[in-house]
Design a protein that fits this description.
By secondary structure, the protein is an alpha+beta fold. It is built from six helices and four strands; from the N terminus they run H-H-E-H-H-E-E-E-H-H. Helices cover about 70% and strands about 10% of the residues.
């Protein structure tokens, strides 16, 4: 082997060693980069999975909340319907009461709404026909300061009566009285029907 061949062999060996070192370092860097990329991908996948689980929980919670609200609204609507039926039933039972009870109820309304001074009570056709003979006397006894007479002309009302004082009318029909007391009646009916 000549000196030149020996130098070339030496240079080739050095180059090969340097190339092997560069390749080893590059492989080491690539392995490190790959490990870091795998770790970052795992972190991102875990974060995506955690966010997905949280989103699914939020959707489930909202769905449960919406279902509970719909159930409460449906129950409230049902209760309000029952209360309305109870109130309407009470009004109907007053209207359909036997004559004595019916006119006793009218007298109680009269005591509540009659005012001092001259006025007129207006009844419907049915009530005028079945009016007790002593009803006007009972009215005068119940509210002596009211100078009231009963109109012989029937009024177009379902039940109860109208009190007319000059230009002022007081609507004492059962429907009007129940409508005026609607909130209090709903509360009372609700307590009776749905005591906890």
């Amino acid at each position: 082997m000549t000196g030149l061949e020996s130098i070339i062999k030496q240079i080739a060996g050095d180059a090969q060693g340097e190339a092997d070192g560069i390749l080893a370092e590059a492989k080491q860097k690539a392995d490190k980069a790959l490990a870091e990329a795998k770790e970052e991908a795992k972190r991102q996948a875990d974060a995506i999975l955690q966010k997905g689980e949280q989103d699914a929980k939020d959707i489930r919670d909202r769905a449960e909340s919406a279902a509970e609200l719909a159930k409460r609204n449906q129950m409230l609507s049902f209760k309000q319907g029952l209360i309305g039926e109870a109130i309407e039933g009470a009004r109907a039972s007053l209207e359909d009461a036997p004559d004595k009870e019916y006119f006793d109820s009218l007298l109680q309304l009269y005591k509540r709404f009659a005012q001092k001074g001259q006025g007129e009570m207006r009844l419907n056709q049915k009530d005028l026909k079945r009016l007790p003979d002593d009803f006007l006397a009972r009215m005068k006894q119940a509210v002596p300061e009211a100078d009231m007479h009963i109109s012989p002309k029937p009024s177009d009302i379902e039940s109860g009566f109208l009190l007319v004082y000059g230009g002022m009318d007081i609507n004492c029909t059962f429907r009007a009285v129940f409508e005026d007391a609607a909130d209090a009646l709903r509360d009372a009916a609700g307590k009776l029907l749905f005591q906890a």
